[in-house]
Amino acid sequence: MEEITALLKQKGLKVTPQRLAILNFLMNTKEHPTAETIYKKLVSDFPTMSLATVYKTLEVLKETGLIQELNVGEGSFRYDAKTSPHPHLVCISCGKVEDMDENMFKDLLQEVQKYTDYKLVEQRLYFYGYCPACQKKMNN
Ligand code: ZN
Ligand code: MN
Question: What is the pTM of this model?
Fold first, then answer.
């Protein structure tokens, strides 16, 4: 928690229990949760926290670059405390979102740059399919 407090301060943010809790939660999960999932996980510890507060806090954390917002093509965004650009795997059956090694495709942006007059600034890669657990269910 001290590390997270320092991170918030470093970004010039006021340290509030909600900001601490949400950033801590995101830094300790690999699940890429939605705002609703975060709210449901934290509301028992923070009964005064509202879903609106979670959204507002996520917006602030995103604007200061402490987290990134992912749009995997669902109705809601996912949130990730790993802010470096890295590819994701998305299960189209259970909705699981997993990280792929960030060194995979690291030259892709430069490669694509050769084929366009656009000045490329970032890439977002999502791969869609069925996770191992869902494949197993399908085969039963
Ligand atoms: Zn799945
Ligand atoms: Mn990720």
Answer: 0.90
